[in-house]
Amino acid sequence: MTAPDPLADILSSLARLEPGHVWLAGAGPGGPGTLTLDTLAGLRQADVVVHDALVDRAVLDLAGPGAVLEFAGKRGGRPSAQQADISARLVALAREGRRVLRLKGGDPFVFGRGGEEMLTLAAAGIPFRVLPGVTAGLAALAVAYIPATMRGVNQAVVLATGYSAEEGEEAARWAALARSGQPLVIYMAMSRLGGIADSLIAAGLPPETPAAVVASATAPGQRVIVAPLAGIDQEAREAGIEPPAILVVGGIVPLRAEVLRLIEAHGGATA
Ligand code: SAH
User: Fold this and answer.
1) pTM higher than 0.85
2) For this structure, is 52 an active site residue?
3) How far is the C-alpha of 196 from the C-alpha of 190, rounded, in Å?
4) How many CA atoms lie within 13 A of 18 on its CB side?
5) Tens digits of per-residue pLDDT, 43-82?
6) How confident is the model at residue 211 (pLDDT cuts 50, 70, 90)?
7) Pocket around ligand 1: residues whose beta carbon is below 6 Å from it?
């Protein structure tokens, strides 16, 4: 008699990825630890995995031995494949009768163009599912000991992008975010960190507003730096912080220093 394996039971009870179907799935922000079981089931069943640049090699290695890995993504904000081409490729693969896993970093619907791909699949009559993933912004907060919400500190948290294709509206956009009075979790902020900090300060946030940058959250090379908003750009430069990284601004950031003090005083494990 073989020993019971509840994990194998769960994996085999999850939905079947059928030929001609597409699963639009999140891989989480980095290391395989944040992968969901649904996405793992998709990796195990897919004939083709169409992935973007932020999906970790260790995650791709979980694909079945016969699976073809196709890179289709953007690097450093520059499109290395046009979005329309990626969506068309998904439709073509499904029409060939392949089992397609479209795998994106984090969550497919958070700054991941997953919405556009879903609309294309739906318009082409391709059967699809959307599988959520752990989004980088929330993962970055967790690994940095910064609660996304904290009683007495905030009632909302804003997920924003530091990069907008719509030029001209920048100042108004940052002003509206600054006025919300709620913590900001900003994706794709690294290439214009100084400009974002300046815009938020110009819009009324005090220069000493606590800020943090969390790079490569959950992945090897994870780093966290903390500084007042006015100094965060210089601090990140001096520390040699590299993308991918999340900028966090607001009253939740100091909880990190508080918990680190407590850990040090009481010897709690941090690894
Ligand atoms: N769909 C993804 C976000 C894609 S946009 C998600 O839900 O997480 C790409 C941006 O995500 C990067 O510029 C960076 O700001 C952030 N990001 C992705 N992985 C990250 C990581 N491991 N650590 C910190 N930020 C990350």
Assistant:
1) yes
2) yes
3) 9
4) 8
5) 999 999 999 988 999 999 999 999 999 999 765 555 556 8
6) very high
7) 29-30, 54, 104-107, 110-112, 135-136, 140, 187-188, 214-219, 243-246
